[in-house]
Design a protein that fits this description.
The structure holds 2 protein chains of 2 kinds. Chain A is mostly beta strands. Chain A is 0% helix and 55% strand. Chain A has strands at residues 5-7, 10-13, 19-24, 31-38, 42-50, 53-56, 65-71, 74-79, 88-95, 102-103, 107-111. In chain A, the strands form 2 sheets. In chain A, strands 2, 4, 5, 6, 9, 10 and 11 form a 7-stranded mixed β-sheet that branches. The N and C termini of chain A lie far apart (36 Å). Chain B has no helices and 12 strands. In chain B, strands 2, 5, 6, 10, 11 and 12 form a 6-stranded mixed β-sheet that branches. A 4-stranded antiparallel β-sheet of chain B has the order 3-9-8-7, with no helix packed on it. Chain B is globular, with a radius of gyration of 13 Å. Classes of the chains: A mainly beta, B mainly beta.
């Protein structure tokens, strides 16, 4: 298995633009998580899905953020419009029923 | 709600020395506990996990951790540190009815030759 795959690895965008981050979880995993990592706030859970259904989105910072999981092998995190304070590393992780997460390599987002 | 504290932000050790990274958790029931390691520019990699049973857990790369319920701790140890162990280490706690993990703020380990 190739692990959790995130794309792109790096994204630089201008303030106000739409940004879409993508994640392919490990096949067979039934949970998918989106985290954001910054120096100031550490690792923050944004949202997680179980069997493609959003379970807890209380960590999504505001309405500019949205996440979808149309099927078991794909999820997106969208920011629209983007702001400089959204600059961070965004991680996707997947797991199978308490087995511990497998993280992707992350997407480093820079909003200028 | 569960929470986790890593009191040491930064630790420096010499190569070959022993290591202990501290982790304290808060949770009303028996928690699920994890240690992850993050190398620069990489995602987090699972080192070890505790669900139940033996309180001393062995992980990858020669690491172990001990669950102490009386102290609400899950400290990570390694008897002899290698230069390649330099990284950031995260403790995480989970509840029994969900896969949601709460991560500590991390401890950055620096290893001197």
């Amino acid at each position: 298995d190739a692990g959790v795959i995130q794309s792109p690895r790096h994204e630089v965008t201008e303030m106000g633009q739409e940004v879409t981050l993508r994640c392919k979880p490990i096949s067979g995993h039934d949970y998918l998580f989106w985290y954001r990592q910054t120096m100031m706030r550490g690792l923050e859970l944004l949202i997680y899905f179980n069997n493609n259904v959003p379970i807890d989105d209380s960590g999504m910072p505001e309405d500019r953020f949205s996440a979808k999981m149309p099927n078991a092998s794909f999820s997106t995190l969208k920011i629209q419009p983007s702001e400089p304070r959204d600059s961070a590393v965004y991680f996707c992780a997947s797991s199978f029923s308490l087995g511990g997460y497998t993280f992707g390599s992350g997407t480093r987002l820079t909003v200028v | 709600a569960q929470s986790v504290t890593q009191p040491d932000i930064h630790i420096t050790v010499s190569e070959g020395a022993s290591l202990e990274l501290r982790c304290n958790y808060s949770y009303g029931a028996t928690p699920y506990l994890f240690w992850y390691v993050q190398s620069p520019g990489q995602g987090l990699q699972l080192l070890l996990k505790y669900f139940s049973g033996d309180t001393l857990v062995q992980g990858i790369k020669g690491f172990e951790a001990e669950f102490k319920r009386s102290q609400s701790s899950f400290n990570l140890r390694k008897p002899s540190v290698h230069w390649s162990d330099a990284a950031e280490y995260f403790c995480a706690v989970g509840a029994q009815n969900t896969d949601k993990l709460i991560f500590g703020t991390g401890t950055r380990l620096q290893v001197f030759p």
